[in-house]
Amino acid sequence: MAAVYTKKESDGIHIRSMLIAMVVMVLVMLVVTVLSARNVKARYIEMSKASAGYIHTRDLIDELQDASDYLTERARVFVMTGEINQARDYVKELKETRRRENSIKGLSEALENEYNVAMLLQKALDESNRLCVQELHAMALVASAKDYDPVLLPEEVTSVRLGEHEISMTPEEKQQKAMELVFGSNYMLSKIAITAMRKRASNEAQSETYAHHEESTRGLWIAITTQRTCVVLLVLGTIFICVFLYLLVARPIHEFVESIKKQEKIKVSGAYEFRYLARTYNRIYDLNMENKTELIYKAEHDPLTHLLNRG
What is the pLDDT of residues 86-109, one digit of tens each? Predict the structure, then answer.
């Protein structure tokens, strides 16, 4: 009988085990949520870098084209007007500002694994440098035609060696040849070739950086979805714990109090400890009721005859 009773009393979940399980569950959910938040942050940083890289690559390629066009414009304006400041601005861009070279360097660092892009950009720079020689030659012809004092001009212009045939030309012929050098069909074909190579490099570079940006965006979306899932699970887990505590702890305590107030037997429910207390209380309750019944019986009956007392 005792063995059966002990087995019966062993049912139910222990509060200690329940609390340990809840703490472990909450800690696991918190760790997963924190890790997912860190992952979201890392993915966001990666996406931001990819976006910045995409914009930076586009700007560098545009800068290369802008610098080449700037040199062309300065050379053409000098050839047409003879303004010395145009020649100085040209040489300053060519030797000091060096936007073309800086753009190539920046692109090489940003796209170190894109050999084809680097090759196209280098070809564009080489072609642009060839045009620079032609542009300086045209400016030297104009300087000679206008008989400028070499002191007023940049060394890069005055150091250009004109051929004997060019030296013997009239100022009008020198001006005409200079115009041909920077406005002629050969010059325009070279400019078109530079633009075409720049566009090809731009398309390939931006395609690569855009793909990386898209991959980073997908990674961020997955990380955010994972974090949202973790937060939902954490909320659901918290609700589950609250319901669990209510069913196994709070409600049994309330029922115990009400039963004790009504002097009734306690319903066996809740965690193991509450079930044990309920059974213990009920045993004592039954024992008290038996004693009370026996006392009433003794009070109402004769102890010898067991007959009901009168009066």
Answer: 999 999 999 999 998 888 888 777
Can you tell me which residue has the tokens 């005792």? 2
Render pLDDT for 151-183 as a digit per residue (tens, 0 to 9): 999 999 999 999 999 999 999 999 999 999 999
User: What is the tally of helices (H) and strands (E) in the chain?
Assistant: 11, 0
Helix/strand/coil for 262: coil
Is there a contact between 185 and 78 (Cβ–Cβ < 8 Å)?
Answer: no
Nearest 5°: phi and psi at 301?
-125, 150
CATH class of this structure's domain 39-226: mainly alpha
**What's the pTM?**
0.58
Do 145 and 174 form a contact (C-beta atoms < 8 A)? yes
Q: In terms of Cα–Cα distance, which of 244, 243, 239, 233 is closest to 18?
A: 244
- List the structure tokens of 164: 């004997």
Who's near 15: CB < 8 A, 6+ residues apart? Answer: 248, 249, 271, 272, 273
C-alpha distances (whole Å) from 161 to each of 158, 165, 178 are: 8, 12, 14
In sequence order, what DSSP letters do the residues of 106-138 get, joined into one string?
HHHHHTTT-HHHHHHHHHHHHHHHHHHHHHHHH
If 0-12 CB within 10 Å is exposed, 13-18 middle and 19+ buried, where does residue 103 land? Answer: buried
Closest CA to 276 of 4, 1, 14: 14
Domain ranges in the chain are 2-22+228-300, 39-226
